[in-house]
Write a structure and sequence with these properties.
CATH topology: Glutaredoxin
Largest sheet: 7 strands, mixed
Number of domains: 1
Strand content: 25-35%
CATH architecture: 3-Layer(aba) Sandwich
CATH class: Alpha Beta
Helix content: 25-40%
CATH superfamily: Glutaredoxin
Number of helices: 6
């Protein structure tokens, strides 16, 4: 399982782009994690899935509310990662009004989530293998802090916790 001091696993994530520009086309665009994190401090939070109750009512809104505080604490970008496809993550981002604040990253086949060891098996609930709820600060591709929730909890992966950790970084 991923831990503080580890480099993020190599691989890709996808992001649905609404407006063409900066070398990105409209629609799903693939980004290489190593290149996308190079030279940056990124606040990452992972969650079980788009449009799920806690994720939509608390997790994403908390990062939206704390986006400016995270930027003031030295965070370059905020990423939300879920085991959903880029189309679903794009629709969820529109629903949550994340444009310009939180990048909605799709891990459609759970490759990144499996590589981190942060999977959560929700097969019995008809959702398959998903991501645990977590947050982390990543600097130049290396994990500087990692907060993993116990199943069904939302106590340590909130945005305010990550703001405090970013200030201490």
């Amino acid at each position: 399982m991923l831990k503080v001091g580890d480099k993020l696993p190599a691989g890709t994530l996808q992001e649905f782009i609404e407006i063409e520009g900066n070398g990105c086309t409209v629609g799903p665009n693939t980004l290489e994690i190593e290149k996308a994190t190079a030279g940056k401090t990124i606040a990452v939070f992972g969650l079980p899935g788009a449009f799920t109750p806690t994720c939509s009512a608390k997790h994403v809104p908390g990062y939206m509310e704390q986006a400016d505080a995270l930027k003031s604490a030295g965070v370059d970008e905020i990423w939300c990662i879920a085991v959903n496809d880029a189309f679903v993550m794009g629709a969820w981002g529109r629903d949550q009004h994340t444009a310009g604040k939180v990048r909605m990253m799709a891990d459609g086949s759970a490759d990144f989530t499996k590589a981190t060891g942060l999977t959560f098996d929700l097969t019995a609930r008809g959702m398959g293998v998903r991501s645990q709820r977590y947050s982390m600060l990543v600097k130049d591709g290396v994990v500087k802090s990692l907060n993993i929730e116990a199943p069904g909890k939302f106590e340590v992966s909130d945005a305010k916790t990550l703001v405090d950790q970013a200030k201490a970084l």
